[in-house]
From TrEMBL:
GO terms for cellular component: cytosol. GO terms for biological process: carbohydrate metabolic process; peptidoglycan biosynthetic process; UDP-N-acetylglucosamine biosynthetic process. Belongs to the phosphohexose mutase family. One of its GO terms (molecular function) is phosphoglucosamine mutase activity. This is Phosphoglucosamine mutase. Its cofactor is Mg(2+).
Length: 460
């Protein structure tokens, strides 16, 4: 059992004892804390938007969330089966006080979570998260009397509204996409991507679409994190069916990656690189990605005359930095695309529209397009943490061991080795340390990561 409280929301495994997993009591407690915080922030706005991915526990958690919000006197607009970016957009369009997305993103089926949004449709800040957790800890709730209970309303219009925003975005070229006559295979991982991605592709003029894992049942056909080792079925089907490309999303459709026509990976790190290249060719400006993302984005940004800025890991941190530097595109190396003049949130739908426009304009296949970018290799690894491990002390000891190398402690510990780097940090969403290393050579990246992982184990 696990329960994690962070800037990414409240996330845990379903069941178990209260406080040790995401039990019904925990769902009610943290929803009540969020609703109480919202009322303090917006005493005259009672509207909250919710939506969920296709998880097995989704309906259960949704019912608890709705009843708790209504019990506080808040009115709920329920988008039903939806995506994280769709709920973010709906919060703004509905002029709501906030929103909750019921999803554990890339985590396996036993997990679920409450992703919490402010009135801008963006993830709440770290400071707001601390205030919310204090309310939860004190159980400082004041539920409404029977005459002031909140209302409940279902709204299934936002699938089309989100698609319309993408199709009508100025840099999405539907005519060019249609003319290219793409054949595409989609891995929808048994969640809401099976609803949203085929509908989007049809609106973009893609006539030939095959969907793998298309039943929305939450019983994920493979580990739902869109990493190469989990996408073998997609890779094989793209190759077998002579498709132009494959598309993979995570269960809440905010992460995006592509498979080339030969079944090889375009690389989740290069989703943002390719989209940024397309955007920067049309609009000059700055870019942002987190400290764990490839330096290829910096190379592409400088090529177009812009400035690149790194941020701490976490969507809220990327968004904050994007606003500070007025970035025209940003995101994360996990396949998260943030297009600020659409909305400040990772969005696989706008990512698909822009990426397909880029491919259509380039006249290249995906393999050739990928080969046109600087070639870096990131070795992505993780070590599970036992309860009570002192990560801060471990990082201090590692920093001491590599004291002659440049380091960055803004988010965990990043160590630079001439042209290579390694970044280690605790996850916001799992009880693990993530270890990412990048080099121009795959074996070098792997060796750096292995060396640091050995250091971590030595100091644990």
């Amino acid at each position: 059992m696990a329960l994690i409280k962070s800037i990414s929301g409240i996330r845990g495994t379903i069941g178990g004892r209260p406080g040790e997993g995401l039990s019904p009591l925990d769902v009610v407690k943290f929803t009540a804390a969020y609703g109480t915080w919202l009322i303090k922030q917006h005493p005259d706005n009672k509207k909250v938007v919710i939506g969920r991915d296709g998880r097995i526990s989704g309906e259960l958690v949704k019912n608890l969330v709705v009843s708790t919000l209504n019990g506080l006197g808040l009115d709920v607009v329920d988008l039903g089966l939806s995506t994280t970016p769709t709920v973010e957009i709906a919060v703004k369009m509905e002029h709501a006080a906030g929103g909750i997305i019921i999803t554990a993103s890339h985590n396996p089926k036993e997990w679920n979570a409450l992703k919490l949004l402010n009135s801008e449709g963006e993830f709440i800040s770290g400071a707001d998260g601390v205030a919310l957790l204090e309310i939860a800890e004190q159980e400082d709730f004041n539920f409404a009397d029977v005459n002031k209970l909140g209302a409940y309303h279902q709204d299934d219009s936002y699938l089309q509204k989100h698609i319309d925003l993408v199709v009508n975005y100025p840099l999405v070229d539907v005519a060019a996409i249609r003319a290219r006559d793409f054949k595409i295979v989609v891995d929808a991982v048994n969640s809401t991507g099976a609803i949203f991605i085929p509908a989007l592709l049809k609106a973009l003029g893609v006539a030939h679409v095959e969907v793998l894992f298309e039943e929305v049942n939450g019983r994920f056909g493979h580990n739902p994190e869109p990493l190469p080792e989990n996408l073998t079925a997609l890779s094989n089907e793209v190759n077998r069916s002579n498709a132009d490309l494959g598309i993979a999303v995570d269960p809440d459709v905010d992460r995006l990656c592509f498979v080339c026509e030969d079944g090889s990976m375009f690389g989740e790190e290069y989703t943002l690189v390719a989209v940024a290249d397309y955007i920067l060719n049309k609009r000059k400006g700055n870019t942002v990605s987190n400290l764990s993302s490839t330096q290829a984005l910096k190379d592409v940004t400088l090529k177009h005359g812009g400035e690149y800025h790194p941020s701490a890991v976490g969507e809220v941190n990327v968004v904050k930095k994007m606003k500070e530097v007025n970035a025209v595109i940003g995101g994360e190396g996990n396949g998260g695309i943030i297009v600020p003049d659409l909305h400040y949130g990772r969005d696989a739908l706008i990512g698909i529209g822009l990426f397909l426009s880029h491919v259509a304009h380039s006249k290249k296949n995906l393999k050739n397009l990928r080969n046109s970018y600087p070639d870096y290799f990131i070795s992505k690894n993780k070590i599970e943490l036992d309860k009570g491990v002192d990560v801060k002390t471990i990082f201090e000891k590692i920093r001491g061991k590599y004291k002659n190398q440049p380091t960055n402690t803004e988010d965990g510990l990043k160590i630079e080795f001439e042209k290579d780097w390694v970044h280690l940090r605790t996850s916001n969403t799992e009880p693990i340390i993530r270890i990412y290393a990048e080099s121009q050579f795959e074996t070098t990246a792997d060796n750096i990561a292995r060396r640091i992982m050995q250091d971590i184990k030595e100091f644990m």
